[in-house]
Amino acid sequence: MALRTVELRPAVPSDDAFLRRVFLDARRGEFPGIPAADLDPLLGLQYRAHAVERRDRHPRAETSIILDAHEAVGTVTVDREGSRVHLVDIAVLAEHRGRGIASRVIADLVANSGRVTLSVWGLNFGARRLYERHGFAVVSEQFGYLLMATEADG
Q: Would residue 16 count as lying in a domain?
């Protein structure tokens, strides 16, 4: 079976509902057993706080919509400054996970960049394994988060 085409397109203001949906979908798994009706208002507050923090910490970051066979399935945010590339965030909707979509996006980013850095919660073992498969290694740890980086030659 051939791999379907994964493409990126810049996020635009009309994508806000989709960006929120992806964020909520990614975070729901962190709160097992809590009904969506109770959890979604809390996650909505977290989404707004996350967006503000991301703008403050990464003002140049660009968010793209991940398209799999022309269907919006996730988001990726990358902060570039000169040769510095930082993967701020990547998330794929649950119903599209396990098909290598995030892996293809990360592989392309690494192949077309010099050194790429990212920060990940240390207990997010699935994400850590994904990043390690793409050549990321832990550089430092602070407050439970790991700074990971690829080698400078991509």
A: yes
Domain with residue 46: its CATH number is 3.40.630.30
What's the pLDDT band for 20 if we cut at 50, 70, 90?
Answer: very high
Distance from C-alpha of 65 to C-alpha of 76, rounded to nearest angstrom: 7
State the Cα–Cα distance between residues 22 and 95, nearest whole angstrom.
Answer: 11
Q: What order do you get walking across the sheet with 71-81 strand by strand?
A: 6-10, 62-68, 71-81, 84-92, 116-121, 145-149, 137-142
Residue 117 banded pLDDT, cuts 50, 70, 90: very high
In the structure, how many helices (H) and strands (E) does the chain have?
Answer: 4, 7
In a domain, 154, yes or no: no
Give yes or no for a contact between 112 and 85, defined as CB atoms under 8 angstroms apart: no
Q: Name residue 130's beta-bridge partners.
A: none
pTM for the structure as a whole = 0.89
Domain assignment of residue 111, given as a range:
6-149
Backbone angles phi, psi at 96, to 5 degrees: -115, 0
